[in-house]
Design a protein that fits this description.
It is a single chain. By secondary structure, the chain is mostly helical. It is about 75% helix and about 0% strand. Among the domains are: about 50 residues; about 45 residues, no CATH class.
């Protein structure tokens, strides 16, 4: 019985392989198109991530000085905090330190925009992305204009 199951399984695998047809190597043009798509996708992703990271947050803008002041205050408050308050203060301190580190990470949006402009039209055409969709995710009209993407696209 076991031999019968193995035989039927191997026949099924062979039938599937025959349906796919012979494997042909990719042409150089196809490989180049795939590489171009990967590069364009990376550039667009980096630009959109930069836009999101530099998007103004609601509320009062915090400076490194105000974060540092709050960290000092937390250290003072920890000395007399109840166990539950201590937990909350330790978490706030961790969050503030992370925020302070991210403040020092500057994003060069000019460089990202310059790279984006070089690939945006081609990427937009290949993915059928409209002008308004770019605007909806925060891409400036001037950047789209520089990329050659207009409202009619």
């Amino acid at each position: 019985m076991n031999r019968l199951v193995q035989s039927s399984e191997s026949n099924r695998v062979l039938a599937m392989a025959a349906k796919r047809g012979p494997k042909t190597p990719m042409s150089n043009e196809h490989k180049a198109a795939l590489a171009k798509g990967r590069v364009e996708g990376r550039v667009v992703r980096e630009y959109l991530e930069g836009l999101r990271a530099t998007k103004p947050k609601r509320g009062r803008k915090r400076t490194a000085e105000t974060v540092t002041t709050r960290l000092e205050t937390i250290d003072t408050e920890l000395e007399s905090a109840s166990p539950l308050d201590e937990l909350l203060l330790v978490q706030e301190r961790r969050d503030l330190r992370s925020e302070l580190e991210s403040m020092s990470d500057t994003i060069d949006m000019e460089r990202l925009a310059a790279k984006f402009v070089t690939v945006a039209k081609s990427y937009s055409r290949s993915k059928q992305i409209s002008y308004q969709s770019w605007r909806d995710v925060g891409v400036e009209a001037s950047v789209l204009k520089a990329a050659g993407i207009s409202k009619g696209d």
